[in-house]
Amino acid sequence: MPRLVVVLLVALVAAAPAAASERHPTLAELEGEIMCPQCHEPLNMSDSAIARRIEAYIQRRIDQGATKTQIKDELVQQFGPQILADPPRRGFDLVAWLLPLVGAGAALLAIGLAARHWTRVRGGPPDVPLDPDLESRVDEALARYES
User: Do residues 60 and 71 share a domain?
Assistant: First the structure.
């Protein structure tokens, strides 16, 4: 029982900053999560006029006490889901999250199967007989090596 209490306490302590960030976001925090609709870069990397206007809007909404989710929802309503740096993890946008993982898994599987195939021992030596001259030179070299 005491172990469960410790785990719950640690979970609450870890969740506190996330909850505070949701209720009291900062402009710096949101700048990396919102994309510029003109240059398609995060706001903190964009110098476009629209990026500066969006930053001013975000700061105004933060000053009014809006939460991070409210601000993001308002921007999505105005500009569409492409305004978010991370696409939502639902519906068709879920493909943007799953496709790289599935592709990486398929690539690892293909590499593993190819490596297994390449390293498999093939039958015995080839059935092609050696040239008699070559065979005698190999025998002589082996005889010198063995002595």
Answer: yes
- DSSP single-letter state for residue 128: P
Rounded CA-CA distance 12/9 in Å is 5
Question: Residues 75, 11: one domain?
Answer: yes
Residue 72 lies in a domain: yes
**Number of separate domains in the chain:** 2
- Specify the pTM: 0.50
- Digits of tens for pLDDT over the chain (147 positions)? 566 655 555 555 554 444 445 668 888 899 889 999 999 899 889 889 999 999 999 999 999 999 999 999 999 999 988 898 876 666 776 777 788 889 999 999 999 998 888 877 666 666 777 788 998 998 999 999 886
